[in-house]
Amino acid sequence: MSFAAYRDPPPHPDCPQCDDLRYEVEQLRIQLGQQTELLTRHAIARTLHLTPKGVDILTKLYGAYPRPVLRYDLERTTLDPWADEDRVTADNLVSVYVSRIRKVLPPNSVLTLHSHGYQLSESGHAAVRQVMEAQG
Fold this sequence. Notes:
- There is one protein chain.
- The longest helix is centred in the first third of the chain and has 33 residues, at 16-48.
- Strand 2 and strand 3 (117-120) form a beta hairpin.
- A three-stranded antiparallel β-sheet has the order 1-3-2.
- It contains six helices and three strands, in the order αααβααββα.
- It is mainly alpha-helical.
- It has helices spanning 4-7, 16-48, 52-64, 71-78, 87-104, 122-135; strands at residues 69-70, 110-113, 117-120.
- The protein is elongated.
């Protein structure tokens, strides 16, 4: 008999307690995922000495790998929704954060796709993955 049979027991449609337990288990899974993401973000910030916005951009690039991330999407990441910042300010902020990320990763880790956005290279992805696994 496999252990899989013990992980997810068959649903009992007539059992309200089972519904409550399934809901609680799902909530715990969500909380665990959020805590894991938070710990990973702290590990990246601490190890690479990045600010929270820098970590936001780096995790967005990492999550999109191997696809590029549009510059506009990164601008939206850097903008404070309550601040009165314009697009030029956001564009400058993205450039500053990407520059800081490039300084802490191996050379050529963040590729610029002109008129498009940015993309992590294979070496950049591996470097971030190594930080995340070391936290792990």
